[in-house]
Amino acid sequence: xxxxxxxxxxxxxxxxxxxxxxxxxxxxxxxxxxxxxxxxxxxxxxxxxxxxxxxxxxxxxxxxxxxxxxxxxxxxxxxxxxxxxxxxxxxxxxxxxxxxxxxxxxxxxxxxxxxxxxxxxxxxxxxxxxxxxxxxxxxxxxxxxxxxxxxxxxxxxxxxxxxxxxxxxxxxxxxxxxxxxxxxxxxxxxxxxxxxxxxxxxxxxxxxxxxxxxxxxxxxxxxxxxxxxxxxxxxxxxxxxxxxxxxxxxxxxxxxxxxxxxxxxxxxxxxxxxxxx
Length: 277
What we know:
Number of strands: 13
Low-confidence stretches: none
Order of helices and strands: EEHEEHEEEEHEEEHEHEH
Largest sheet: 5 strands, antiparallel
Distance between the termini: 25 Å
Number of domains: 1
Radius of gyration: 21 Å
Shape: globular
Mean pLDDT: 92
Strand order of the largest sheet: 7-11-1-12-13
């Protein structure tokens, strides 16, 4: 747990900026929802921007990181979960506590008020915790879709994967299609973490831990059927103090490397030294 207490004073010290690439090791499907279904198109289209290019929403990436960290730290037991929605068939449960040193709530934010636990007494909290971590939408790098790849795609930038669900009694096939960004595509990732007190400094290690967990999990839909395996590469971590925003000090590059292991090793060895630099 962190060193935060109810008396911890919050004031912006600076921001950690992580930039890099997200590489698709297998086809990636981040769904657009039923509202964007087109005649003659896939049953399950991917989300696209106004120019028709696929992208990874920051909310999808951030939510997946939070979910993986909650599972990894044992925070998905009924006593640790609260309901965001209790609508039947659309229940949403996430971790939230009123502990001042709860690192997940510190990193991702916490809302005040009364929230019903899945098991146990409701949470009654008057204090909001600002979210430290911001994850931005990750645009597709068009150059990652090579001419050779385009020759085998169903659309200019995506492929359509055909699947069959088989009835266990009659053996009748129920075909469906899944639009995916092809393996080999890459997206440009950017995250920023506010450091509001010295106690915040170790929280970024959680972000990198979540990213490493994601590399052995799946992003988007169809993960258990082979889609969504990703890898982070060509990463750069920088520090921007409060003086940077006033024009009084430059950005400081902390570490740059080909993979998450490089960033994680730097964080382990350097700790919170960047705040004093």
